[in-house]
Specification:
The complex is a heterodimer.
Chain A lengths: L2 H13 L4 H13 L1 H19 L7 H16 L8
Chain B lengths: L13 H11 L3 H23 L2 H17 L10 H20 L35 H13 L3 H12 L4 H8 L3 H23 L12
Classes of the chains: A mainly alpha, B mainly alpha.
């Protein structure tokens, strides 16, 4: 397997959605290709960091303000009739 | 090497379906529970797309109001969360279009001009590199880094990897094909990785920041 092919399959490899045969081929490539090992490892870490440290968290005060505003608007609105 | 586990559960439970049904009949308290369940997700999505706090606040309000008004159109063919996200994405794009009235805004923006599918710098990272930074600094780094990506890339990454939508749900939400989502996700992941190198790579002795 070439590095370019490894990269093409990287998403499915990280998501665990590859069949066993292809997964084994990619794992084998990682045992000797240091660059792909690093790219794979740091890409996985990238996803984990974004998932575990969610940016743009909604502050509680703003959350309450938005909540009130939405409820007020909903109360004064009529649901769209079923089409 | 382990795989990434999706940690967002978004399946409609019978409890959620009951809330939707009550809200459809005008029970605002039931709808409030749905707001509380998903408002953080909708706010993040709105911020990611508009990159503007005021716009994001408007989008959250507009998206939930539109969802409430159109609850009867929700057929349950998709999950409620996915349906809501689709409304939020559309509202956010409309907001962006208004703001950039002279420019076209679409999911295809800039995606053909950026390559980024081949790693240019391969550098190993320190173990737990995020722990080198205080939480506020880390958030700033993550915001700055993802803001540098074309909208079509960062939106796919955010929906798929942060909010936990499946590839098919992401495609449906953004009106893209499944192969387009896969291709953008790969490029988004690789570009983010590359851009984070400068903050997370292992420091050599006497090494200043040598990255671009």
């Amino acid at each position: 397997m070439k590095c370019s092919q490894f990269l093409t399959e990287l998403n499915d490899f990280l998501d665990g959605s590859l069949d066993q045969k292809l997964k084994a081929e990619l794992s084998e490539h990682l045992t000797w290709c240091h660059n792909c090992y690093i790219v794979c490892n740091t890409t996985k870490k990238t996803i984990e960091i974004y998932r575990e440290n969610k940016i743009y968290e909604l502050p509680d005060t703003l959350r309450a303000k938005l909540h009130d505003a939405i409820v007020t608007k909903c109360k004064s609105s009529k649901p769209t009739p079923e089409s | 090497m382990g795989t990434i586990q999706t940690n967002v559960t978004t399946g409609d439970t019978s409890e959620e379906l009951a809330l939707i049904q009550s809200a459809r009949e005008g029970d605002i308290a039931a709808f409030e529970q749905l707001i509380r369940k998903y408002d953080r997700n909708v706010f993040r999505i709105a911020q990611h797309i508009t990159q503007n706090r005021e716009d994001a606040e408007d989008v959250v309000q507009d998206a939930f109001l539109k969802a409430y008004q159109n609850l009867k159109q929700f057929q349950g063919n998709s999950k409620f969360y996915t349906w809501l996200v689709r409304i939020a994405v559309n509202e956010a794009l409309m907001k962006l279009r208004k703001r950039k009235s002279s420019k076209t805004v679409s999911m295809d923006e800039d995606v053909e001009t950026e390559d980024g599918s081949v790693p240019r710098e391969v550098a190993d990272w320190s173990p737990n590199p995020e722990q080198q930074y205080r939480q506020a600094e880390l958030s700033e780094i993550l915001e700055k880094t993802i803001q540098g990506l074309p909208m079509g890339f960062r939106t796919v990454f955010m929906l798929r990897d942060v909010e936990g939508l499946s590839t098919e749900e992401t495609a449906e939400t953004l009106g893209l094909s499944v192969p387009a989502v896969k291709s953008r996700l790969l490029r988004a992941r690789l570009q983010l990785r590359e851009r984070l190198n400068r903050y997370f790579k292992k420091k050599k002795n006497n090494d200043g920041d040598q990255s671009k």
